[in-house]
Amino acid sequence: MTIDWNAFNVTTAIAAMLGGAMIGAAAVWLAWANGRIAGISGIIGHMVDLVVQRKHEAFGWRVAFLVGLIVSPLVWRMFAPLPEVHEQTGLIGLVVGGVLVGLGTRYANGCTSGHGICGLSRLSLRSLVAVGCFMGSAMVTVFLMRQLLGGAL
Amino acid sequence: MKSTMHWLTAGLAGLLLGMGLILSGMANPEKVIGFLNVTGLWDPSLGLVMGGGLVIGSLGFALLRQRRLTLLGEPLNLPTNRTINGRLIGGSVLFGIGWGLTGICPGPGLVLLGAGLDAGLVYVLALLAGMGLYSLIERQRHPYQ
Asked: How crowded is the C-beta side of A139, counted as CA atoms within 13 Å?
């Protein structure tokens, strides 16, 4: 393991901690105000279930939450330029990866927000197991892609 | 009136979460892959995102534990599921493979979509397809629920 000092410096470390604190605050706020867990895969997945299984139930607050998330870069841009984004994979990788994330998070009942932030904050053992599994498999995947295949997808 | 408040508070939560993802670097797949790349050139930043999130989160959820009602005066029910089974483990492993391939988890996917990136649109459509597939499989297994 070698630390990438170009990517990791005082500025990025402070931004990471502050940004993380905002993510935590958003999760606590949604639980406090609405009594809901800010799990993004669960929120989208519930809406998909309602459509696919033709259940007559309103999307309700979920729509507002997702709209807030989607417009956040537009609101950011009103005050400052958006940080640069460097995509790491092509079309095939995005499609295969997106489908796997969709399937996997529904079976696991959560993703980085629901298990990673909310679950670990509530000291849930179930979420700790989930985080260990997805962090582990993501690290192995990156290792295989970068070190062995040279990032081919 | 009450549902208007629900929408406002939820919209605010989504906005704050999105801003946090952008500021922290989570919305940049390069930072995410840099963190997951533990055997190569490693960028520890996302560990600090988790750290910042967990400090505020654990304080906040500890305080909420003592409350019975939400701000809007409804019962405050936090999750009670403690099951650790194959679904949880298998699902998490699949999610991790997809996360490792793209460097994008669901929240940042929506942020990239909002930023107008083609990659965000493709990723979110694929995410919806994966979730739709799950929903169809579940409907086959439990048709009368």
From this structure: 14
Of B25, B78, B111, Cβ closest to residue A73? B111
Tokens, residue A106: 């529904």
Q: CA of A27 to nearest chain B CA: how many angstroms apart?
A: 7
Buried b vs exposed e over A72-109: b needs ≥16 C-beta within 10 Å?
bbeebeeeeeebebebbbeeebbbbbbbbbbbbbbbbb
Q: Kindly list the distances between the CA atom of residue B21 and the CA atoms of A27, A72, A118, B15, B29, in Å, as whole numbers in the listed order.
A: 12, 9, 15, 10, 11
CA distance A127 to A116: 7
pTM here is: 0.95
Cβ burial of B117 (10 Å; 0-12, 13-18, 19+) is: middle
The set of residues, in sequence order, having a beta carbon less than 8 Å from that of B3 and lying 6+ positions away, is A60, A61
Site from A48, A61, A69, A121 to mutate, B interface, most B CB atoms within 10 angstroms: A69
CA B42 to chain centroid, in Å, comes to: 23
What is the full per-residue pLDDT of chain A (153 aa) written as tens digits?
789 998 899 999 999 999 999 999 999 999 999 999 999 999 999 999 999 988 888 888 999 999 999 999 999 999 999 999 999 899 999 999 999 999 999 999 999 999 999 999 999 999 999 999 999 999 999 999 987 777 555
